[in-house]
Amino acid sequence: MSLSSKPPFRIYRAPWVVPVTSQVVSDGAIVVDNETIVAVGAYSDISRQHPDLSVTVCSGVLLPALVNCHIHLELSVYGVIHPPTQASNMCDWIKVLLQSRENANFSLDEIRAAAKKMAQKQYDSGIGLMLDVGNIDIGKFDSCPLEIHSLCLEMLALIRRPKNSPM
After folding, report:
1. What distance in Å separates the CA atoms of residue 17 and residue 29, rounded to the nearest whole number?
2. Does the pTM of the predicted model rise above 0.85?
């Protein structure tokens, strides 16, 4: 049975396609069945093999989802935290971050809402998989198809110092 006889199948065509296991394809195309890529190649070959499929023309490059291998979703609730001065270093920035955390009183619901918004933003920018490093397990979000794995530092006993302990 030809792929073109099934309605969920569709062709996506782009000036460049970057497959995982072969070289970049100029004027390439992919055949997708719902969320599964079933064929990759030159558009001329793909369109000849599947002449009845509808074609979506894309600009730019079609490539596999990107991986964000280190994100702190729980910190999304703080927005952008700027370093104290232009001459500040990473340690100075971390001190400001820790002070912000110490002075904040966000609920878990607020933290999860901000994390969910950030996860969706990551997904919309091409991230398909991420490792969330944090003190709490944010979990997954039903409305965002992003695959999230959590490395929870609290579970590793790497956090939770007493408030008056030195940093």
Report:
1. 7
2. no
Q: What angle do CA 77, 89, 66 make, to 5 degrees?
A: 55
Residues 157 and 132 sit within 8 Å (Cβ to Cβ) = no
Q: Is the dihedral of CA 50, 51, 55, 61 positive or negative?
A: positive
Q: pLDDT by residue (tens digit) across 51-72?
A: 999 999 999 999 999 999 999 9
Q: How many CB atoms lie within 10 A of CB 128?
A: 14
Residue extents of the structural domains in the chain: 3-62, 66-152
Architecture of domain 3-62: Roll (2.30)
Residue 87 neighbours by CB under 8 Å, 6+ apart: none
Tens digits of per-residue pLDDT, 13-61? 999 999 988 999 999 999 999 878 999 999 999 999 999 999 999 999 9
What is the DSSP-derived secondary structure letter of residue 162?
-
